Amino acid sequence: MLFETNRILCRNFQYEDFEDIHSYASNDEVVKYTAWGPNSEEDTRIFMDESIECINDKPRLRFELAVIDKQLNKFVGAVAIFMISEDNKVGEIGYSIKPEYWNNGYAAESAKAVVKYGFEVIGLHRIQAACDVRNIGSANVLKKIGMKQEGRIREHILVRNRWRDSYLYSILDKEFRSE
């Protein structure tokens, strides 16, 4: 386990998580606004291999983590933080929750916890996230955890043969500490 809240724990992925990960990564509704997916089984295996291989990297720049509900002892989703600039101490977060657990606060809780980990353990100065402008749920999560919308990035990513606009959100370590 890397960290926990009252309700969840976040730990490194394990190969035993394959079915749980693939169940959301191959779901059209889950990946509707993502730049990845829907995954084939091979896509999920490659993702898992890469996520598990980086666990022992020095320095570790990528943290792909399982989100486990402690009371239910169930895999409910995933949260991630990536170092995008070591020199500038900038990270980026992402999250994905299995549909049967949507609207229960898991995205916000795990995102807030990984932001805290990014600032307090990794030592980041800035953490950011981008979401499809149509993904109102994700935008609400980012606002809820204290991120500020910086703007709209126009047609910056090609997703399923269509250019996508995204909203960019961020939070600075001093803003996080003052909450």
Please explain how this structure is put together:
- The protein is α+β, with helices and mostly antiparallel strands.
- It has one domain (3-177): 3-Layer(aba) Sandwich (Aminopeptidase).
- 29% of the residues lie in helices and 36% in strands.
- The chain is built from five helices and eight strands; from the N terminus they run ββααβββαβαββα.
- It has an eight-stranded mixed sheet, with helices on both faces.
- β3 and β4 (74-85) form a beta hairpin.
- α1 (18-25) packs across α2 (41-53).
- The chain is globular.
- The two termini are 25 Å apart.
- The model has no long low-confidence stretch (mean pLDDT 97).
Give a brief description:
With 179 residues, the protein is an alpha+beta fold. The chain contains 5 helices and 8 strands, in the order E-E-H-H-E-E-E-H-E-H-E-E-H.
**Order of the strands making up the biggest sheet:** 1-2-3-4-5-6-8-7
Helix/strand order: EEHHEEEHEHEEH
Specify the number of helices: 5
Helical residue percent band: 25-40%
Q: Which stretches are poorly predicted, pLDDT < 50 over at least 5 residues?
A: none
Q: What value does the average pLDDT take?
A: 97
Q: Into how many domains do the coordinates divide?
A: 1
| Beta-strand residue fraction | 35-45%
Question: Could you please say which CATH topology applies here?
Answer: Aminopeptidase
Rg value: 16 Å
Number of strands: 8
CATH class category? Alpha Beta
CATH architecture descriptor text: 3-Layer(aba) Sandwich
Give the CA-CA distance, first to last residue: 25 Å
Task: Assign the structural class, choosing from mainly alpha, mainly beta, alpha/beta, alpha+beta, or little secondary structure.
Answer: alpha+beta
CATH homologous superfamily identity: Gcn5-related N-acetyltransferase (GNAT)
